[in-house]
Amino acid sequence: MSVPVPSWRLRAAFARRLSDMYGREVPAYTTLLEVSAEVNDEVIRRGGDAGRLGGIERVTAERHGAIRVGTGLEMRQAAQIFAALGMEPVGFYDLREAAASSVPVVSTAFRPVGADDVERSPFRVFTSLLTSADRRFFDAGLQGRLEAFLGRRRLFPPELLDLAVRAERDGGLDATSAERFLTLATASFELSREPVDRAWYAELEKVSAVAADIGGVDRTHVNHLTPRVLDIDELYRRMADRGIAMIDRIQGPPRWDGPDVLLRQTSFRALAEQRRFRESDGTVTTGALRVRFGEVEARGIALTRAGRALYDELAGESAERWAARFPDSERRLAAEGMAYFRYEPAAGPPPGGGPPPRDLAGLLDGGWLRARPIVYEDFLPRSAAGIFQSNLTDEGVRDASLSGVHYDRRWLSGVLERPVHDPFALYAAQQETSLRDACARLSLPFPE
Ligand code: OOG
Ligand code: NI
Question: So what's the ipTM on this one?
Fold first, then answer.
């Protein structure tokens, strides 16, 4: 490619800058990075197959962040900025129903989608959109004032958006423009230092702390940044030893002896940060808000729809029930069609004698093919809701007697004016391509 700074380099640089900014502003995040690096080093040194779900370089650099925006226009502009970084919307998460407390948002994750592109820089951003039209949360009067407030603010400067359009069109930027783009983009996700309107913030907070965090201030901000760790149970213990109070559990599948699947996450609560407030009499006072927190995650194998259905069925059940029901080896996950793998011809000459088996399990067992797990690159709605919830001090109010508005992936594609990918389809296509290639190289028919 002819552009000096291709989009994946922009993405890697942007992830580093955000991480530096967050580390300066949220010291507990730096502790989390230190402990994660320590744990990862030890796991790698212990040996075993720790590298199976991603090499140490990728895992150490890996982060996801989260932002929240207020309107379709803001969401579309965020999508434009992420497109410049080679990140596309994947998946639709409706968090309005996924939590007991009041979380009036729907979300997607912006991330690289090509397998090679993920490998180069796996940065992702979980992005949530306030559902201000949902009557269960906002009455018509509040919706009107909220939308008027949001309509007046500007999250991203026009220069940044212009550079983003160019970067998307050309697949990257020249060095000078890249620097400017990175500076403006990073600044757009810093915490605003402008005074917060006390009464307005408090009014929204009564509905939901998430609504206040989005619609009560004049900007958006990264609310957490999450490193990836190879042993999350060990990390959890060490953070506690350092005196950082984590939420009471690790979200996602239980710890067990079988393969790591999907995603396990845990977080620490947002710390109180000093902010300025504008009071009703016009004076400016200081106070504190808790809006930026820390989270860490361990990633496992991506599950197929069938695997995911079983995971959902077993969620909330005991670790014993899980161990009894969930396939306990990669081989079983592959043979039972429960997880996604990249297939390749096994090393060495194909086994002699007899025709090759026609089914996938036979090809694996007979030593024709080798399977490598495809890492889960997405999120889990129940865990995401748990992460939101762990940072709410109060439940907020939701009038369940009223009906909500139906939103789905197609609706979000319309808002973004870009396709929102189905994550299952992305993993399935990767698996299928690898299987076709592997079979072609061995002159085998595609397995039944
Ligand atoms: C996003 C929470 C979801 C995750 O890792 O599941 C999330 C937010 O708090 O804005 O980041
Ligand atoms: Ni997160």
Answer: 0.99
